[in-house]
Amino acid sequence: MSDVVKNWAGNITFNASRIHRMLTVPELQDLVAGGGKVRVLGSGHSFNRMADTTGDLVDLIGLPRVVEISADRRTVRVDGGIRYGELADRLHAEGLAVHNMASLPHISVAGAVTTATHGSGVRNRNLATSVAGLELIRGDGKLVTLRRGDEGFDGAVVGLGALGIVTALTLDVVPAFEIRQYVYDDLPRSVLDDNLPEILASGYSVSLFTNWQSTDINHAWLKRTEPMPDGPFFGARPADGPRHPVPGVDATNSTEQFGVPGPWHARLPHFRMEFSPSTGAELQSEWMVPLDRALEAIDAVAAIREQLAPVLQVNEIRTVAADDLWLSMNYHRDSLGLHFTWIADTDRVLPVVAALEEQLAPLEARPHWGKVFTQDPATIRSRYERFADFQALAAEYDPAGTFRNAWLDDILG
């Protein structure tokens, strides 16, 4: 490999000896069957070494695009390299939608699924829960298909790349719908404390943003199917101009606001597909805690806000509904997500990450698999009831460790 390959943020330089960008599924099977180490890059939006390898790094963007809508129009089969933005355009043209999207439409569907990435909403489960079937190349190079209800399916969907290379996914779809996005400034902390459940349930998707320069919320973002009444929102003022999630940053690449109705895929993400969301000069972390302990979690973060603020760009507070996927951060519990966008300075950020983890430990916080965290693997494993079952499933699909790397070795034990 002559070129240097980094992740989106630029904080990880991959150690692969070879990178493959233009492969068919049979070629991928031959590569895996060859017996060397293999990992999949996805869209490169992970902030740790989960995609790293000293062997072959595979970029699936070169796979032929597949968007096959079922006859009953309830599912769509897609290839393992497609991004959400492209899929959204294709689905919307057919009058269809996925139930939710992440903040960025630029990420790959397979990468989002395998890490339990999510959007927001008290009734919205993460993106992996829309998977009705997946096709993957296991450690011996054979292509296998798993469907919802099959043995091991709930363990394989959020697979961390440990079971194989996902070459295709079948996703649930719904009729296309419109969303309106509203932004409010300066939500007082006292009002948040008194009304948090109502605030978080006030839209199809709700996100609260703070840089912890004070204890108040800088912005509340509501994505709704119905119009909002005029006036304040729980004491917060309607924004007098477009906003970016990070206070003070130009809002050009943010999705349209002011309650203007628009298609689902142009409002559910925070950022427009046609723009790069930022320079990538950032690090990200996120932890999921039980939703019924949300105020405890916010208090725990606020207690060290003076330590956070110097290295923090913004903290997004949002919700995700419970599911049954073994390694989902939302497994069997409705969750409050605490997402942190840091400055791009690993040495300064990591001690703050460790301090946050200590604060959130009594709440049994689960870190997002693709973000920056320092929790020891034994603690992480203890927070997933089905982790031992997942270890067995990974050993069954990849007994020789073709898809293992140092990061997975630590996580799986």
From TrEMBL:
InterPro entries found in the cross-reference section: ALO_C, FAD-bd_PCMH, FAD-bd_PCMH-like_sf, FAD-bd_PCMH_sub1, FAD-bd_PCMH_sub2, FAD_lactone_oxidase-like, Oxid_FAD_bind_N, Vanillyl_alc_oxidase_C-sub2
Keyword Oxidoreductase annotated: yes
FAD-binding PCMH-type domain segment(s): 12-176
Recorded GO CC terms: membrane
Domain of life assignment: Bacteria
The keyword Amino-acid biosynthesis is annotated on this UniProt entry: no
Keywords, in A-Z order: Oxidoreductase
GO terms for MF: D-arabinono-1,4-lactone oxidase activity; FAD binding; L-gulono-1,4-lactone dehydrogenase activity
One Pfam family per UniProt: FAD_binding_4
PANTHER family tied to this protein: D-ARABINONO-1,4-LACTONE OXIDASE (PTHR43762:SF1), L-GULONOLACTONE OXIDASE (PTHR43762)
Protein's UniProt name: Putative FAD-dependent oxidoreductase
